[in-house]
Amino acid sequence: MKKTIITTIALIAAIAHTAAQSISYGQYMEQVLTNNIALTAQRLNIDIAAARTQASKIHNDPTLAIAYSNSEEWDKQLGYAIEGELSRTFTFGVRKGGIRVAESEQTETAALLEEYIRNFRADATIAYLEHIKAQMLLDIKTENEEHLQQVAHNDSLRYAKGDIAKSDWQESRLAAGLAHNNRLAAEAEVKSSAIRLGYHMGNLQNAENISGNGTLEINEPVAPVDTYIERAMNNRADLQAALCRVDVAQAMRKFNAAQRRTDLNVKIAAEYNRGAVADGKREPSFTVVKAGVAVPLKFSNLNKGARTADRLIVQQAEQQAEAARLQVQSEVMQAYNEYLYAIMQTETFTQRMVQEMNETVNSKRKAYEAGDISFLDYISTQQRRNEMNDEYIDALFEKAVKWVELQRATGCNMQYSAQPINE
């Protein structure tokens, strides 16, 4: 029975490996940047901003008015009049100011899109790391289950021969059952993390069968923190967006100033008057041509509130840009220190430690099967080995994540051609 279970586990693992859609980090990121729907929707902001810039270049439309007038006493034929008027308002600097505002907003939109893509790449990379971690944990849980299933099978034979007590056989069988449950939970996490990869790639069809083929090993040399701060100042799109908001505020201030200037309304009109009929004779008809200029009296400009508000908005944008610089520096310094700490955590684990722990478990198993130690002594060593493996994988994962966060803080785009994950 135990042999059947072990064979079934191995068969399921082989079938799952065959059905899995293996994908490297480079292939994954290429599909993320190409197919993700949310990212595609964000890219439309560039086209929208460009269209608004184009729309800002329009001129004021002229106005055409036509009027007809007649006496209410139609039977007296007192004559009628038809008037046509064409007018247009001319502004000075308003159109140019509107174009400047739209262009500044378009530049800001481009910076915001770059910032969105930067964060999206980092989030997608972390999702890939989570999937790799889940796969590594599944491999450990599967190996542990197979190991304990074999021990439980051997104990059943030893119990049948009378070599061990029933309690030892029951304990080994219980440990194998718990290992089976742990393996199922790890398998579910692998599928869930694979579905998250499918979401980032914009396709959930058979997403649970996606399998990453990278590792969590990150061996990037650490530069001085000032190097990362300098990179961030040059690369961070959110900082560029903050500077663009200063340009937008200044452009809006000039636009509002142009709107406060005096407009000029020019109109040309012609009026045809049909002569009235008096004593059976129609009086002569005549046409009147009109031309005029209307200038609004801007008494509202005496109120300085709008000017003060515009000035303060520019000042606020400048202060926000300076705050953004400080925030970028703070984020880089925090990410840098967290990455250094993650490196120190992984350095506490060595391949030799893992190998020695495996050797200890194997020796404990042989001692247990020889009857020299209890099952409790053996399984406690096995659990310590499992805990150490889990902690080692967690440390590798945290180091990789902190590296990604450092890249995010410095504004690096992590193009899919880059290989932050060894493959």
Structural class: alpha+beta
Radius of gyration: 39 Å
Major β-sheet profile? 4 strands, antiparallel
Low-confidence stretches are 1-18, 415-420
State the helicity in percent bands.
55-70%
Strand order of the largest sheet: 2-3-5-8
Order of helices and strands: HEHHEEHHEHHEEEEHHH
What does the oligomeric state look like here? single chain
Query: Number of helix segments?
Result: 10
How many E strands? 8
Percent strand: 5-15%
Q: What would you call the shape?
A: elongated
Mean pLDDT: 85
Intertermini distance:
39 Å
Question: What do these coordinates show?
Answer:
The chain has 423 residues and is an alpha+beta fold. The protein is 67% helix and 11% strand. The strands form three sheets. It has a four-stranded antiparallel beta sheet with strand order 2-3-5-8, with no helix packed on it. The chain has a two-stranded parallel sheet with strand order 1-4. Strand 6 and strand 7 form a beta hairpin. The N terminus is likely disordered.
List the helices and strands and how they pair.
Elements: H1 2-19, E1 21-23, H2 25-35, H3 37-55, E2 63-70, E3 80-90, H4 94-161, H5 166-200, E4 210-212, H6 225-235, H7 237-259, E5 264-273, E6 277-278, E7 281-282, E8 286-294, H8 305-347, H9 351-369, H10 375-410
Parallel strand pairs: 1-4
Antiparallel strand pairs: 2-3, 3-5, 5-8, 6-7
